[in-house]
């Protein structure tokens, strides 16, 4: 297994993964080609075979984060995302959480509300062995001030919410712009047709793995997931069918040195 660590491998994911031992991957974070763009650099995305290999190579307690959306044709969404989620369930994975990536989208002209999100299905093999919760500030009211607050509201002289700061676990709807870069800008990333935000990859890698774990992206494109895994002191493996994008990913990853302290 050490032969594959911290490398970008060129080839079809379902074939490359056949050489991997069982139960060797701690975390998978990936965003596969969607529906109408299933043809990728002239190649075809074979979901059932890839899903089977991901299930086999995932460790017990490991997690797969599958970020996906649906194409709309003839006035109907394809429901491919749901079909893929159910297929992972049929293989024996648990659907630990259905998360939402809410992103900014350019305005389009059609007879429906604008699409501003993608699904982030979080699957686990049996249980979830690692969860490093991301926290955010929460306002809560000091019990000693509740009576005064209610009296002020009743008398029509509310001075606003009187509260204190306290951390809470972040919700499962994440607001991250498409260009959500948080490291040195990588101009090379724009050579790929589907840019994956640094922050989205970072937050999932931080949440579901620990330092030294193995993080895989079987369709790594421009290499955002491997890059962020490196910066978070994880081992990475990237696979992509396109030699051009593998070279792009390697170029991006090599630009960044591993920080002395954990990158957050």
Notes on the protein architecture:
It is a single chain. The chain is α/β, with parallel strands linked by helices. It has 7 helices and 14 strands. It has an 8-stranded mixed β-sheet with strand order 1-14-13-2-5-9-8-12. Helix 2 packs parallel to helix 3 and helix 5 packs across helix 6. The two termini are 28 Å apart.
Separation, N- and C-terminal Cα atoms: 28 Å
Number of helices: 7
Describe the main β-sheet briefly: 8 strands, mixed
Structural class: alpha/beta
Unreliable stretches (pLDDT < 50, length at least 5) are none
E-strand count: 14
Question: What is the chain-wise order of helices and strands?
Answer: EHEEEHEEEHEEEHEEHEHEH
What's the average pLDDT? 83
| Cα shape | globular
Cα Rg: 21 Å
